[in-house]
Amino acid sequence: MGGEETVSGGGTDLKRVCAKDLCCYKIPLFRSWFQGLIVLCLLVFVSSLGFSDSALSWSENLHRHFYGVFNQSRQMNAPAYRVHPKHKAILDEINKNAESSGEHPGGLQYHQAYPRNYQFVMDNAEVCKNNTPFLVLMVPVEPENVAARDAIRQTWGKDTVVQDKVVLTLFMLGLREGGDVEGLRQENEQHHDLIQSNFMDTYLNLTIKTMVIMDWLATRCPTAAYAMKVDSDMFLNIDNLVIMLKTPGIPKMNYLTGMLMWNRPVVRSKNSKWYVPEELYPDSRYPTYTLGMGYVFSNDLPAKFVEVSKAIKPFNIEDAYIGMCIKKLGLSPTSPPNPSQFRAYNSKYNRCEFSKIITYILGSSEQLKNYWADYKKPGPHC
Ligand SMILES: *[C@@H]1O[C@H](CO)[C@@H](O)[C@H](O)[C@H]1NC(C)=O
Ligand SMILES: *[C@@H]1O[C@H](CO)[C@@H](O)[C@H](O)[C@H]1NC(C)=O
């Protein structure tokens, strides 16, 4: 966001200079004026390149936080494709699905990110029937990451009533080759909070994971008022979130909010974790979207996202994909009442600050437990 402001701010200043220069030149000087204009335009172009580079690395840093660390060893062991291996994997999937779409029984319908191509292995369908929630927190997490789930269960996922409202916290998992099926079954028997679907739980499949979350909300929990997709490495001030959603004037429908990303450039550098090939997403910029670390929405939207996603080619950046869905619905994300409550960086713990925010990115589950314990201590926060 800061980077983006610099870009547009710089552009405006240059435009102002341009306009001032124009009125000072007289007609006989047209030729040199014209040459000057060309030089100036070149300068604008070159400097905008510089700006967008820094904006890119800025957004990469943000993404690094919430997409976790990519498994380097796997990347290095991959065979040398002419296209980037990640790129190839995505294209292979698309081609495979295009061939099998609709034609063959059992073949994928629509495309890979369409959630109804997958089946729930565990769905805890009863959790929303017993007690209609005001807010459902959906946390995508790797199947083996029990530590993250336990930390959340002990902290912001602990209370089922927050500010007099029913809040549910559930974890969304895919399948892992050689995963601990029995361990997960027992964990779910104890907590009744695991949703698992039969897609492979990989980094490139995060868009599927998000869309399966949407499918679950639409079909297993349609009576909830609001939902949030929140990453497992977040500090979530759940009280402040519920207070925000209870604020008079917060829409009950077609509402999507969080940290808004405007006009973000698509990463085309093949070494980047957020690389998206032109074949998957041709435009150079994303529509306005909410940063994936934590976005909040009225619970009428999941069904609409699932429906509209049939017509949107999947790509591997889940939050920008939701941005495409909301755009296709003719809607757009809304700024939260207090945008500074959605923070996408981690700095030192500050009890006062953590009492005011809604999201904050953390480094580990240990941090979450420690900060939470301190934040919950009695006494003034500031
Ligand atoms: C990385 O991938 C390799 C091979 O796929 C696997 O053996 C290893 O456990 C993975 N490491 C992490 C940290 O996920
Ligand atoms: C994504 O999940 C599908 C369905 O399980 C699987 O066939 C595919 O290999 C996965 N794709 C990647 C890139 O992991």
Structural write-up:
Its main location: Golgi. Its EC number is 2.4.1.-. Belongs to the glycosyltransferase 31 family. Keywords: Glycoprotein, Glycosyltransferase, Golgi apparatus, Lipid metabolism, Membrane, Signal-anchor, Transferase, Transmembrane, Transmembrane helix. It is a single-pass type II membrane protein. With 382 residues, this protein is of the alpha/beta class. The chain has a domain at 113-375: Spore Coat Polysaccharide Biosynthesis Protein SpsA, Chain A, CATH 3.90.550. It is built from 13 helices and twelve strands. It has helices at residues 2-24, 30-67, 72-77, 85-100, 127-130, 146-154, 181-191, 206-220, 238-246, 301-309, 318-328, 351-354, 365-376, and strands at 120-122, 135-140, 161-162, 165-175, 194-200, 226-230, 234-236, 256-257, 260-261, 289-290, 294-298, 359-361. Strands 1, 2, 3, 4, 5, 6, 8 and 11 form an eight-stranded mixed sheet that branches. Helix 7 links the parallel strand 4 and strand 5. Helix 6 (146-154) runs parallel beside helix 13 (365-376) and helix 8 (206-220) crosses helix 10. The two termini are 28 Å apart. Mean pLDDT is 81; it is low at 1-28, 48-84 and 98-107. The protein binds 2-acetamido-2-deoxy-beta-D-glucopyranose (2 copies).
Q: Name the average pLDDT.
A: 81
Instruction: Report strand %.
Output: 5-15%
Judged by helices, strands and strand pairing, the structural class is alpha/beta
- What molecules are bound to this protein? 2-acetamido-2-deoxy-beta-D-glucopyranose
Number of helical stretches of at least 4 residues = 13
